[in-house]
Specification:
CATH class: Mainly Alpha
Amino acid sequence: MAGVMIEHDASLLRLLQLASPSLPVGAYSYSEGLEYAVHTGQVKDAATLRVWLEDGLHDGSALLDAAVACRVYEARQRDDGAAVRQWNRWLTASRESEELRQQSHDMGRALLRLLRDLKPSLPDCESWQDEPCNFATAYALAATHWGIPCSDAITGYLQGWAANLVNAGVKLIPLGQTAGQQMLWDLQAAIHVAASTAIAATDDELGVGGWGMALASMAHETQYTRLFRS
């Protein structure tokens, strides 16, 4: 029993590190169009921010990322490098805007660099140097390498996505820190549903419908003043 507990604690600690806002991948510098939505009044308080985030978890790129991360995780476990790269390219092709694609590639590159430098390092980081790697792909590679169960990794991924945008909303609307934490608490059910949906989705069910976020991320490029990169 003690051995089981120690093994579980190790994977939990690794998940907490991988999903931490302090992970140096630059997630804090992106709002994924939320800054433009606040600028135009589409998101103006806690209630409208919650709707924005729940829509993202239900139909947006976060859900698609999680579903593809599941497939990368499983392919990695089978040592199927071709499938890992196929899903990575598929995810790149699914990005609705250049801004969202660039964010994913920049964060993926940063995470791979971290996985290369940490010991024990991810063994084949160098093989990704000539190919853009999405953050969800790199995240799944890290979760497999660190022995984090897939379902836990996917839940952590979605919670990290929500936490990043809640923090952005706290700065932009603005909201108080307590309101931000209440928002994360209230999103637990939506995160759980999204994780379950991502894990159970078939290939034919994969898609993205977060057009509002995509259009906002495109318009954000020409916004007069900005705190975030996209």
